[in-house]
Amino acid sequence: MQKPKLITKQKLKFIPNLINYQKTYDSFNYKEHYKQVNWLDKDHLNAAYAAMDANVLTEERKNKVALYWHGPDDEQRKFTFQELTWLSSQFANVLKTLGIDKGERVFFFLPRVPELYYGFLGTLKTGAIAGTLFAAFGHQALLDRLENSDAKILVTNSQLFPRVEKIWPQLPQLKYILLTDALQNKNKKLLSLPNFMELAPQTTHICRTEPTDPAFMLYTSGTTGKPKGVIHQHLAIVHEYMTAKWVLDLQENDVYWCTADPGWVTGIAYEILGSWANGAASLIHAGRFDPDKWYQLIQDYKVNVWYTAPTAVRMLAAGGLKTVQKYDLSSLRHMASVGEPLNPDAIWWGLKAFGLPFHDNWWQTETGGILIANYPCLAIKPGSMGKPFPGITADIVDDKGKSLPLLTEGHLAIKPGWPSMMQKIWRRPKKYQSYFNKGWYISGDQAYKDKDGYFWFIGRDDDVIKTAGERVGPFEVESALVAHPKIIEAGVIGKPDPMRGQIIKAFIVLAEGVKPGKTFEEEIKTFVKRYLAGHAYPREIEIVDSLPKTRSGKIVRRFLRAKELGLPIGDTSTLEKF
Ligand code: ATP
Ligand code: MG
């Protein structure tokens, strides 16, 4: 394995919220921190109240901007905490008028429009369960999720409605559809949200939810198979608040940009709940990925904290330094990344481009918040996910749930009981149970821990390659490949081989203008061998135009495998293209 180049000290130009990781970790007891967010009373906690309404308790916060909304055609709107508090209460009242009860499901099938954000909070205020659906979903993906969740109300717009109209007859429990852009009700079931909002009062009685009452549900990304409906409780807000404070380092006067879509958990936990509970202003960009536009937004909104994904970083890096250097990005103070392993090369590029490292962190839909992270106050080992968040016990265990020695790869496991741990998998109790073994939550990812307590990601259980008796993680091979200047992205799989069990096959995307010559394959193999053990280089290399990805930007290796071996592809609802 390539020796990590340690960023020994981060040159901080600010005092981070978490100053001493080890001291905090050693003395941290989660229960003592439950009251860091605002509860309704001693026993009742509502995540929407804690994330939004609690901000209007102080004069300064109340009139501060909470949301800068930047539309796809450069329209701009902004909302203060007070305004979002009112709007979300109005929305809660709309739901009440329509007879929604505690525990019933309300889903949002919308692009990143303001209605999605205050509607989500308003749903939580009623005690109903809010769910989000990515706007690019086709009718089958919608049917699966709306049927599985038994949603009673769906909020969408006229452009997306035709996809739902097609399946509505198959969803007898779906009573009403609210359109965000219809000025009049279409009929008794297809309603105008603006119309209802106009009639709704700006204050509401917030449901006195228990901390363990369900608050929101999300379907996983579907990287490994059929997406699972994960249920989270109101108490999750405590962990989301704490991690937004110590990992994302959100401070009250920050402008913060999380590039995720609320169709995925990152957009819920760190664009609505944890971030607003910290009082920071969120920038929401409703348009598409475009390097120039992204840099322009950071410059114009003076973004201080930026939370994005490795795939975006790789795409920005492919655009080179010239584009970045056209902009004044000096407002940036802290950058973080999640969703996939962050290749060390992406960190080195970040340092060159922004003068700051990206801080990788690891978590899942099921964990409801960041569990393992790099922090501003800690040295970074590029390629490592970092260390467990205070209050989180993480370890590497074998199939029997037994702790493994340092530097030994195994299942990444967490001690259950953190506040944002999923409460159940909707209608799949056996699936839920299957996550737990001998007192551990088993993540389904393979990793190892080093002597300093840093965790290193190897791959998902199904993606780890066994070649000539050795186990090889796709991540390290992919990281070695993308370190080559001619390669932008790489996806690596194990391909059955009569001699070696499996051989490593790499699918690579080349940088613009690169023409692979005759010796190209050999050049790449030699390059990778310099980084990794002799057996861990790809014996087969295929050049492709793009890699199959989920809509949230994750490389789907099961798709590459299925295609290579002529096997059924499985669930494709979350794939970008196939
Ligand atoms: P599904 O469970 O439906 O197959 P998914 O696992 O991709 O989809 P998510 O919950 O969105 O759904 O993603 C969590 C997974 O993403 C983790 O289990 C891990 O494999 C990967 N991941 C997230 N962050 C990181 C990271 N920092 N480093 C490495 N892997 C990461
Ligand atoms: Mg998963």
Q: Describe the main β-sheet briefly.
A: 9 strands, mixed
Identify the strand order in the major beta sheet.
2-1-11-10-12-13-14-15-16
Question: Per DSSP, what share of the residues sits in E-state strands of 2 or more residues?
Answer: 15-25%
What does the overall shape look like? globular
- In total, the number of strands is 27
Number of helices: 18
The span between the termini is: 33 Å
Please state the structural category.
alpha/beta
- Average per-residue pLDDT, rounded, comes to 94
Explain how this protein is built.
Helix content is 28%, strand content 22%. By secondary structure, the chain is an alpha/beta fold. The chain folds into 2 domains: 21-449, ANL, N-terminal domain (Rossmann fold, 3-Layer(aba) Sandwich); 464-577, 2-Layer Sandwich (GMP Synthetase, Chain A, domain 3), CATH 3.30.300.30. The strands form 5 sheets. It has a 9-stranded mixed β-sheet, sandwiched between helices. It is globular, with a radius of gyration of 23 Å. The mean pLDDT is 94. Residues 220-225, 227, 264, 338-341, 360-362, 364-365, 385, 443-445, 457, 460, 554 line the site of adenosine-5'-triphosphate.
